[in-house]
Amino acid sequence: MANEIAVKNFYQQSTNKHTGILSWLLTKDHKRIGLMYMMAIMSFFVVGMIIGLLMRLELIAPGRTIMNAQTYNTLFTLHGVIMIFLFIIPGLPAIFGNFFLPIQIGAADVAFPRLNLLSWYIYMIGATLVIVSLFLPGGPIDTGWTFYIPYSIRSTTNVSMALFAAFVLGFSSILTGINFITTVHRLRAPGMGFFKMPLFVWATYATAWIQIIATPVIAITILLVIIERAFGVGIFDPALGGDPILFQHMFWIYSHPAVYIMILPAMGVVSEIIPTFSRRTIFGYKQIAYSSLAIAFIGYLVWAHHMFSSGMSDTARWIFSLLTFIVALPSGVKIFNWVATMYKGSIDPQPPFLWVMNFIFLFSIGGLTGLVLGSLATDIHLTDTYFVVAHFHYVMFGGTGTIFFAALHYWFPKMFGRMYNMKFARIAVVLYFIGFNMLYFPKFIMGYMGMPRRYYDYLPQFTPYQRISTIGSWILVGTIFFIFGYLIHALRKGKKATSNPWGGVTMEWHIPSPPPLENFKTIPTVTHEPYDFSQLKEMKNE
Amino acid sequence: MSGNNKHHISYGTYIIVWLALLAFTSLTVTIAGVNLGRYTLFIALSIAAIKSALVINIFMHIKFDEPIFKVFLGISGSTLFIIFLLTFFDYIYR
Amino acid sequence: MSDHQEAAVHQLHRDDAGARMGMWLFLFTEVLLFGGMFLVYAVYRYQYPDQFHLAARELNTTLGTLNTIILLTSSLTVALSIAALQNGNKFLSLILLSATLLFALTFMVIKYFEWTTKIAHGIYPGSPELLTKPNGQILFFGLYYVMTGLHGLHVLVGMVVISFMIVFIARDKVTPDNYVKLENSGLYWHLVDLIWIFLFPLFYLIQ
Ligand code: HEM
Ligand SMILES: [Cu+2]
Fold first, then answer.
1. Exposure winner among A303, C17, C148, C156, fewest CB in 10 A?
2. Residue A541: per-residue pLDDT
3. ipTM, 2 decimals?
4. Domain count, chain A
C-alpha cells in the first residue's frame, strides 16, 4: 500500500481517550486485549515452568533432595493448575484468537468488545485467587489438579479457594467462547462465506463451542464440591451415600473436551503455517474444516477413558475404549492433509515452519501413546504411571505448547512490526527438540517399568532415567528463556517487518504490520479462496 | 436498524399459551396423585418437555427468530442428552 | 487516519440479532450448568429410588404448585411487557415489568417459608436429624437445597436485571425501537422459569 506510512497503528492510537497504561487497561481493542492476555499468560507459563524445574530438581536423586513430600504434592498440584487453567486452555484462543480471528474474517473487532475486556479482568481475578490461595492459612492445595473426591473434601488445605479460582477462570473462558461464536456468525466481511474462512478461524470457532458447552459442567461440579465442603451437604461424599465416581465423570465430561480446547486452535495454526511456507493451497480444505467440528463433537463421547480403573461398569469401559479410538480418525485426517499439502509444494523452511515440524513429530508420539492408554488392557497396566505423565506432556506441551511457539514466531512480525533473529530461531528449534525429548522420553520408559506418578521419591533403579530427564528440563527451560530473550530483543532492536514477510495470503497479511487500530481502512470484500496463492502477485502491487 | 425482531406476537397469543401452561401444570399435579408405577416419571417429564417447548417457542420467540438459533438449541440439547446417555452406561450396568 | 474514521470504526454498530445470539449462547451455558445438577439427581434417583420417594413426601406440593403458577405468570408478564413496548405502550410495559418483579418477590417469599419450615423441622445439610436418615434421603435433601437454592439465586439475579430494565425504560434508554436489552432480560427470565418447570416435578411430584 502506497500510503502505508501514513497509517497510524494501534499502538499509536487507542480506542479510548487515555494514554499510557490506562489506554491498555481500559481498551476495547481486540488486539490490545490479545496482547494483555499474552503478558499475563506468559508470566504464568514462566511460573509453571519454574515449578516444573523445582520438581525435576527434587527428582535428580532418590530420597528427599530439596523438599519434603507435602511440598512436592502442592507443587505438582500448582504446576498442573497453572499450566492447565492459566496457560494452555486460554493460551491460543485468548492471545492469537483475539488478535487474529477478527482480522482474518475482515472485521474491525469482536462482536462484544466490552465483554472481551471483561473476560480479561475475570481471567486476572481467577489468577489472583489462585495466588491468594497459596498464602492463606490452611496452605496451598495438594489434591492434584484433578481434585478427586473424597480427598478434596477431606484435605484441610485451601481447596475451596483454588476451586473457586478455577470456577472464575471457566467463566472467562465461556465469555470468550460466546464472543468468538457471535463474531464469526455476525461480523464476517462481505464475500467471506463460511468456506472462505481461514482454518484457524474454523478451529477457533469449533473450540469456542467446546468452551461454551463443556465449561458449565465443570463449573457446576466445582461449585458442588465447594458447597459440600462449606455446608456438609451430601453430594459426592461416599460417607453420606454419594458416589466419588460420579465426580470423576463430571470432571472428565469437561476435562476431556478441554484437551480439545487446547489442541484444536493449535491444529488451526498448523493449517495456516503449512500452506504459507509450502506456497500451496491447503489440501482438503473442507475436510480439515469439518474435522475440527467432528473432533469437537466426538471429543464429547470419550471422557471416561480417564476412568478405566475407577470401578465403573465393564460395559462403560469397553464402550469408552471403543469411542476413544474413533476420535483418532479426524485427527488422522488432518495429519494426512497437512502432509499432502507439503507434497510437491515449494517448501521454505523458515522458523515457523520448523516449529510446525517439531509439533508434528512430538504430537505424533503423544497421539500414538494415547492409543496405548486408550485401549483398556494396556491402560490398566500403565495408568497413574509416568507413562501417562509423558503422554500428556507430549500432547499438551509437545502439541499445543510447541504450536504456541510456532504461532509466536509466525505472527510476531505482524503483532509487533519487527523481525527477530532467524538464526537464533533455528537454533532454538533444535535445542527445544533435544531438551524436550530428553525431559519426557525417559518418562515413557520409567512408566512402563512401573514408576508411579506424583511421587517425590523413587527406587534406585530409576536413577539414570530420572537424571536424564532432569538434565533435559534444564536444556528445555534454558531454550525457552533463550527464545524469550531474542524475541524481547527484537521488540526494540529488530528489523522493521514488512506487511507480508512470509508471503501469506490470509487477511492479516493484507494490512500493515502492526495493524492499524481499525484493522481495515474500509471493511474489505473477499473474493479469493483462503489459500489462493495466485493473489501474491496482486498483493505486491497493492 | 439491523435485526430488530420484526415478528410481533399479539397479547392474545401469549395469554393462550399461559393458559395452556397452567392447564399442563394442573394436569401434571393431578397425574402425580395417581399411582402409575414406573410411568410416573416418564409422564411428568413429558409434560415438562411440552411446557418448555411452549415457553421456548412462543415466550422466547425462537420460532420466529434467526433459524440458526434452533441449530444452536439442538447442539446444546443433544450434548446434554449424550452426557446423560453415556453416564448411564456406567450406572445401569454396574 | 482521521479522527472521524477512528470514531466510525469503533463506534459499535448496532446488531440486535448479534446481541440476542450472544444471549442465547449464554443461556445454553446455564442450561448445561443445571444439566450437570440434573445428572447428579438422575444418578442418585436411579440408585436410591425408594429413598427419594420417601423423602419427597416431606416436601409441600401445594406450595410447589403455587410457586409454579406464580413463575409461569411472571413469564407471561415479561413477554407481554415486551409486546407492549413494541406497540409503543411504555406505561403498560412498565406496569407489566413491575408485576413481574412482584411475582418474583412472592416466589422468593414462599421459598423462604418453605425452607425455614424444613429447617425448623431439623432438616438441613449436616443437621443431626438429617444424618440419622438413610443415605438416599440425605442426598435427596442435599440436592433439594442446592438445586432450589441455585435456582433461587437466579431468580434474585433476574429481579436485579428486571429492576434495571424498569429504570432504563423509564429513562428512555430502552425504547420501542431499541429494546434488545429488554428482550435479552426477558430471555433470561424465561430460562429461570424453564428450569423451574423441570425442578417442580422432580422434587415435588414423586409420590
Ligand atoms: C518446563 C516444563 C515442564 C516441566 C519440567 C514439567 C515437569 C513436570 C513434572 C515433574 C510433573 C510431575 C510428575 C509427577 O510426579 O507425577 C508434571 C506434572 C504435570 N504437568 Fe508438567 N512440566 C512442564 C511443562 C508442562 C506444561 C507446558 C504443561 C501443560 C500444558 C504441563 C502439565 C502438567 C500436568 C497437568 C501435570 C500433572 C499434575 C498432577 O499430577 O496433578 N507441564 N510436570
Ligand atoms: Cu481424555
1. C156
2. 62
3. 0.93
4. 1
Task: For residue A169, give the amino acid letter.
Answer: L
Greatest extent of chain B over all pairs of C-alpha atoms, in Å: 57
Q: Which residue has the cell 449436616?
A: C126
Residues A500 and A350: their CA atoms lie apart, in Å, by 14
Contact A152, A159 (CB under 8 A): yes
CA atoms of C163 and A381, how far apart (whole Å): 59
Tell me which of C20, C100, C197 to substitute to probe the interface with B (most B C-beta atoms closer than 10 Å): C197
DSSP string across A111-150: S-HHHHHHHHHHHHHHHHHHHHHHHSTT-S--S-TT--TT
> Could you tell me if B70 and B56 lie in one domain?
no
Q: How far is CA A178 from the centre of its chain?
A: 18
Does pLDDT of B40 surpass 90? no
Take atom 40 of ligand 1 and give the residue whose Cα is closest: A144
pLDDT surpasses 60 at C8? no
Contact assessment for residue B93 and residue A317, using Cβ atoms and an 8 Å cutoff: no
Taking the CA of residue B92 and the nearest CA in chain A, the distance in Å comes to 8
Q: Residue A394 C-alpha to ligand 2 middle, in angstroms?
A: 14
pLDDT band at B6; cut points 50, 70, 90: low
Statement to judge: residues B4 and B30 lie in one domain = yes
Do B93 and B51 belong together in one domain? Answer: no
CB within 8 Å of chain C, chain B residues 18-57: 18, 21-22, 25, 28-29, 32-33, 40-41, 44-45, 47-48, 51-52, 55-56
Q: How many degrees, rounded to 5, is the angle at CA A292 between CA A280 and CA A406? A: 55
The answer to whether residues B47 and B83 belong to one domain is no
DSSP per residue over A310-357, as a string?
A: TT--HHHHHHHHHHHHHHHHHHHHHHHHHHHHHTTS-----HHHHHHH
Residue B56 sits in the same domain as residue B74: no
> How many structural domains does chain B have?
2
Report the pLDDT value the prediction gives residue A6, as an integer from 0 to 100: 58
Same domain? B54 vs B80: no
Q: What is the DSSP letter of C38?
A: H
Domain containing A404 equals: 3-541
- Going from the C-alpha of A124 to that of each of A39, A84, C29, the distances in angstroms are 11, 15, 21
Q: Does residue B12 sit in the same domain as residue B26?
A: yes
Give every residue of chain A whose pLDDT is below 70, as ranges. Answer: 1-6, 541-542
Q: Hey, what domains does chain C have and what are their CATH numbers?
A: 3-204 (1.20.120.80)
Domain containing residue B21? 1-60
